[in-house]
Structures
1.
Amino acid sequence: MRSLGLRWLVIGGTCVLLALAPAWPQAINLNAELIAAVRSGNLARVTTLLEQGADPHSRNRLGDSTLNTAARAGDLPLVRLLLERGADVEQANLSQVTPLMSAAFGGHAAVLAELLAHRAALDPVDRVHKTAMIYAAGNGCADCVRQLLDAGADVNARYDAGATALMWAAAYGKVDALRTLLARGADVDVRDARGKTALAIAAEQQEAAAVKLLREAGAKP
């Protein structure tokens, strides 16, 4: 039996044949190689490994799936390939960050569009209470903000501590994102859990351009 690499499991006194053991380490090696190939952006190698049976849902030690890794890097060809091969668009890492959040954080609008086309959910929240919209607004990706709004995100949604996307953009002085949010009807008078408006937050952070834009939009402290 050992020469064939067979494995047996005893259940209630009965021996049950499990599998050919050599397939296990081979699968593990393929998945490890896939993770490394995705990290290095090697599209040809990723394609080959998937054809050989590597699992597109393979994760690294931080729980990042291959799709999450490719989304964070903004690698559109890899993202498309992994989605075509069945990668889960909602597979989050250990910090509950989804591929959509990763794309929004990096400002990778083309990748974000691809994920949204595959029905990526807008509302998941990670372990620091952020959503894809918060990452898009806070990092100033106006195109990402626009796409999320087009996909159905509420421009005046209240997130952690009562903050809105407008407040996140104001806090970091992301003027392009602010313009997009204002053009889509963001409420400048909403206050967070501390009683602060977007204008007050921008002033507190000394973001002069954001303060000017919000004042022009009729915002009050």
2.
Amino acid sequence: MSVPAPIHQAVRARAQGRCEYCHSPEWVGAARFTMDHLVPRSRGGTDTLENLALACRRCNERRYIFTTGRDRVTQQEVPLFHPVRERWAAHFAWTPDGQWIVGTTPAGRATVDRLDLNDERHDDGFIRISRALWVEGGWHPPAGDPVIPEVRR
């Protein structure tokens, strides 16, 4: 079952060519981004605009069917960031070098950890290497995204 074309186009337009979780630009990769069901189909989720987010493959695979994560500060299980209902800037900021996403709220921190947005669980750190190149190219971090004044990971 595929997402109806008008809904697919509306999700893509809303995301403005970026993963709605990690804000990676779609145009720098070789593969189109996917539709992520915020409430997974296996849990009754639908193909509506309100239930779909544009996601890069790495974020989509890492989110899987999870809708919650553990906040490392409070140790509480909290809902993950919801890219349709919430603003990215209300939960996340970039480090000054543009390579790390910092969760600034419980939902933001839980999402950073659950989706491993900075490749902290992987030795390669490919996403941070990519972000460094994007910074060099002048197209990262995205305009309007907050940058924290000091590094707080």
